[in-house]
Recover the amino acids of this structure.
């Protein structure tokens, strides 16, 4: 039986690191996606018997989510990348400004629950024209729970919970 991540409430998680920057600065160079991914993945690898292997494996997923944020946000505001750890999961949370959520819906990558899709480019990145969620493959490969939701009035959050076990198959 596959273990489910705790709810998306951060109370079960201990904060590890948070990085915040101006969105215009973040979007000024595509390479920031790779640099931020490398930094966060190295931190996620800490405490594992093979930190480089765990970091490398999760950097693929983290990079996809960071690039999703890169494509999905405008030029104004701040973007925040945060890592949390619980006994069984590592959480990556990316919060950034976005447009008001519209009435369109998509399913989360894992739970099948319906969530709003922002009125930004994020909608086409998250859904194919037939309504298929693009993040579901990523969630399956990494045994992760991935969710995109509104963050307050006009913000977007990408939340991903990855199992901390090292036995990826």
């Amino acid at each position: 039986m596959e273990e489910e991540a705790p709810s998306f409430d951060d109370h079960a998680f201990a904060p590890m690191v948070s990085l915040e920057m101006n969105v215009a600065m973040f979007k000024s160079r595509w390479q920031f996606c790779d640099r931020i991914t490398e930094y966060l993945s190295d931190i996620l690898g800490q405490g594992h018997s093979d930190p480089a292997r765990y970091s490398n494996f999760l950097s693929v997923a983290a990079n996809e989510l960071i690039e999703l944020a890169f494509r999905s946000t405008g030029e104004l505001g701040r973007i925040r990348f945060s890592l949390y750890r619980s006994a069984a999961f590592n959480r990556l949370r990316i919060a950034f400004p976005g447009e008001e959520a519209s009435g369109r819906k998509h399913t989360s990558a894992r739970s099948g629950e319906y969530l709003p899709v922002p009125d930004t480019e994020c909608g086409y990145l998250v859904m194919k024209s037939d309504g298929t969620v693009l993040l579901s493959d990523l969630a399956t490969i990494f045994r992760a729970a991935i969710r995109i939701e509104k963050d307050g009035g006009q913000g977007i959050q990408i939340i991903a919970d990855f199992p901390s076990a090292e036995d990826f198959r």
Remarks:
- Confidence is low (pLDDT under 50) at residues 1-7, 100-125, 127-132.
- The chain is about 30% helix and 30% strand.
- Strands lie at 14-22, 78-85, 89-97, 101-107, 114-118, 145-151, 155-163.
